[in-house]
Design goal:
The structure holds 2 protein chains of 2 kinds. By secondary structure, chain A is mainly alpha-helical. Chain A has 9 helices and no strands. Chain A has one domain. The chains are: A mainly alpha, B alpha/beta.
């Protein structure tokens, strides 16, 4: 039992070291990209942004709208019982903008783009596309990982703000229909409860979640060795680890910003 | 540069075999050396050692005047731009057309647009019979076509060293003739060193300056085609083709 625990600890340490090394390499490629591969990498970045950001808008809109409706419906029916009718704005900011917005967006990005990245890279590895790229002098960090990290971080940031806006809109629809609160008081209540710290916290979560998802998913995709049956196994690991690390990061950011 | 490729007692393990390979071979600039021998004899591993994909456990591998073990990843990346490699699996990017696959190294390293490369790349595609296929994706190509595309991708950067793993594998007779012509023309107009592995008799064997017979991870004999054809080893004669056996 102790041996198993020790081995798991060592494995976890090595895993986190590998991820940290990948983040470091990505930052190095980003800071000093050199001349070679700049345009090719930019093209990969834009394509990934199109898939992760733009193509995700319909599903993010639907989930955000429904979540906004649910949260305000629950709050609107429960708060009057304790005399908290005026707390609608605070509820939206605390529940949606601070927590559910970033986390739900991260889970959507993990399940859509994270899984796709791991699958694509895993298949590339088995088909020796990665080896062929390396043999052409095309570095994996510059051409494969860095563009995906940049694209996922930017897409994650935009999607979180978009999610928040749509969720607030969903909340307003319920507030208008069920609770008969007009737009101006509703918007005023949300604006009053929102602070710069909330915006900065959301930005921090967007950057950290995006980095986590992209790096973890790339790492697992590139960990595939020789068989297509390894691909779904690595996808499962990538998704579970991405969600776990995002939750841990969320706790750390929440503690750092709000405590 | 005295040798384009120099392996000195380079030892490496073969996956699935209990023996280790040990290669000693020197290839001069502009020379064409064909590696012949049975499957799993270590020919592919020798090419991977030269490409820097596998590091030797012992011994040294020098390529284009560089000791591969002494290079960092940045230097190895730079060196690889001077080497064209075609592995047994073509390794074409599955989400790119044949044309974008062939131009990828130039687009990446020289930062030029694919469209502006057309006049440079089209003659090569024509010579390999790939022009009608340039808009197809790798999944729509036959193995032979994909391998020809991989060869075009390797040649497009004008490499000083070509490492070809079974260049004639999966090619029909016409494709094989085109590859033969392209390589001959390439050698006529440039100083290019070629190291190619083959496990079937092929027209390329007669073009090679020297033939190295590889068996169980060792180079058992090296020499010009005519000399090798006189050797009594039946297995070697089988790889050189029936004409030699007679």
């Amino acid at each position: 039992m102790i041996g198993w625990l020790g081995q798991k600890t060592i494995d976890g340490y090595i895993y986190l070291t590998d991820l940290s090394a990948q983040v470091y390499l990505t930052i190095c490629e980003l800071v000093s990209p050199g001349r070679q591969g700049r345009w090719a990498s930019l093209r990969v970045t834009l394509r990934q942004m199109l898939f992760t950001g733009v193509d995700a808008l319909p599903v993010v809109s639907a989930v955000a709208l429904m979540l906004g409706l649910i949260v305000i419906m629950q709050a609107g029916t429960q708060l009057p019982k304790v005399g908290g009718e005026g707390l609608i704005g605070s509820i939206i900011v605390v529940v949606i903008i601070r927590e559910l917005g970033p986390l739900t967006t991260a889970i959507l990005v993990i399940s859509r783009s994270g899984a796709a990245i791991t699958t694509e890279l895993g298949n590339m590895r088995v088909a020796q596309e990665i080896t062929a790229l390396e043999l052409m002098g095309i570095g994996t960090s510059r051409y494969i990982v860095m563009p995906r990290v940049v694209a996922v971080v930017l897409s994650m940031l935009c999607l979180i703000f978009y999610f928040d806006a749509i969720a607030v809109l969903g909340g307003f629809i319920i507030a208008r229909i069920k609770l008969t609160i007009p737009f101006y008081p509703f918007a005023h209540a949300v604006a009053q409860s929102l602070s710069l710290v909330d915006v900065l916290g959301t930005v921090a979560k967007g950057v950290l979640f995006g980095t986590t998802v992209a790096v973890v998913c790339c790492h697992h995709g590139l960990s595939v060795r020789s068989s297509y049956t390894e691909v779904p196994q690595q996808v499962t690991k990538a998704m579970i680890n991405s969600i776990t690390i995002c939750l841990l990061v969320d706790i750390l950011v929440t503690v750092a910003v709000y405590f | 540069m005295k040798y384009a490729v120099e392996l000195n007692r380079a030892r490496a393990g073969m996956t699935g075999e209990d023996w280790k390979t040990e290669f000693t071979l020197s290839v001069s600039p502009g020379e064409f050396v064909a590696l012949v021998g049975p499957g799993r004899s270590g020919k592919g591993l020798l090419l991977k050692l030269c490409a820097g994909l596998v590091a030797p456990e012992e011994g040294t591998v020098r390529v284009l005047d560089h000791d591969l073990a002494a290079l960092d990843s940045e230097q190895l990346t730079e060196l690889r731009q001077r080497i064209g490699v075609v592995l047994q699996q073509p390794g074409l990017r599955s989400n790119m057309t044949l044309y974008t696959n062939v131009t990828l190294p130039m687009v990446y390293h020289q930062g030029v647009d694919e469209a502006t490369l057309l006049p440079k790349v089209l003659p090569l595609l024509d010579a390999l019979g790939l022009t009608p296929l340039q808009k197809l994706f790798p999944s729509q190509l036959t193995l032979g076509e994909a391998r020809c595309a991989a060869l075009a991708r390797a040649l497009v950067m004008n490499p000083e060293l070509l490492l070809l793993d079974e260049p004639m594998g999966g090619l029909d007779a016409e494709m094989a003739q085109r590859v033969d012509r392209v390589l001959a023309e390439y050698r006529r107009t440039r100083t290019v060193t070629i190291l190619a592995s083959m496990h079937n008799p092929s027209v390329l064997l007669e073009r090679a300056n020297r033939i190295a017979f590889v068996r169980q991870g060792r180079i058992e004999a090296v020499g010009p085609y005519a000399d090798m054809a006189k050797m009594p080893d039946i297995a070697l004669q089988a790889y050189l083709g029936s004409r030699s056996v007679a």
